[in-house]
Amino acid sequence: MFEMWSSYKKRLIRDLDRWQSNGWVSEEGRAAILSEITGAGRGIGLASVLAILASVLFGFAAISFVAAHWEDVPRLGRLALLLAAIWTGYGVSGWLTRRGQDAFADAAVLFAVAMFGASIMLVSQMYNIYGSPSDGVLMWWAGSLLAGVVLRSNPALALAMILVCVWSFMQMFDRNEVHWPFLFGWALVAAAFLWQRWGPGLHLAALALSAFVVLIGYFLDGGHAHALVATLGVLAALAAAGLNKVRPDLDGIVAPLLVYATGVAFAGLFALQFIESPPFGTRIALAALTLVLLLASISHGLSAPNRAALWLGYIGFSIEILMLYWQTVGSILGTSLFFLIAALIVASLAYVALHLARRSVPGRSA
Fold this sequence. Notes:
Blueprint: H1 5-21, H2 27-39, H3 46-68, H4 75-98, H5 102-126, H6 133-150, H7 154-175, H8 182-196, H9 199-219, H10 226-246, H11 251-274, H12 280-303, H13 307-327, H14 332-360
Helix pairs in contact: 1-2, 3-5, 4-5, 5-6, 5-7, 6-7, 7-8, 7-9, 8-9, 9-10, 9-11, 10-11, 11-12, 11-13, 12-13
């Protein structure tokens, strides 16, 4: 599900170089394959980014203009103005698509979707329609998802994922409970990302799901379900690592999964240590488990290579050490003892890693 197109292309290019050097693929075949994969997918370039930013600014300008003259326009004129803004965006998108300007067409779709969301709020205000603000966000999400699927607009789908998160998080904080319908909305947008084969969108979906799982720890079981979050993260990380060993060809799927799962596990373990205030012995055990998890992430990041896992391990390790130091800063002896224990653990793991590396090299003894 989480196959990242850009990662796949990079790995395939490296494989093609190796296959050509071994004589398995001819130079003509390599050129044909590269031409095929280069033309596939829809990437993000500077023009796309600037077009999206311009679309956002146009949206704010239009909304500000309408709001400034809102009271001076009759109700029928207000509705006509809003509808004209929406359909102008879609019309410009179609014209740009026919001209082959896909990036600018996506920006026009995003403008239309933004005006649709503004219309929901302005019409509610105009006709004094009272209700939960999250219901308006839900309608906006549905419109964004429909526009993204019908017009195959990645920015509109990205907005839909953001809106489903806003909708669900508003429900969670209003009701102080887990909002399980989020998973249904998330699955629909994630399926659209997969259908589009858009790597950044799949990353956004994974990030949204990770944030939801972390929030479960703060809303389930009276806000004390962080052990469940940590367990889910650790199990997902172990499953991803095992899948990587069995199916190395799925590295494009496993690599991001491993990073997000490790991040969820670290968030759960962090909350167990520094928000739940466990006994000293439990905290030490949790700290040791956290350090092992982060060092494993660093090790994987170095060997894969996987920069995201590497930086997650470095940053998480630094945060963990600083928080543990802050918890023991009142006792100089306790602080020095902690750093001594941490140093011994890391040194032991380094020795084991070196021992395993030497054994893996043929002709060398431990």
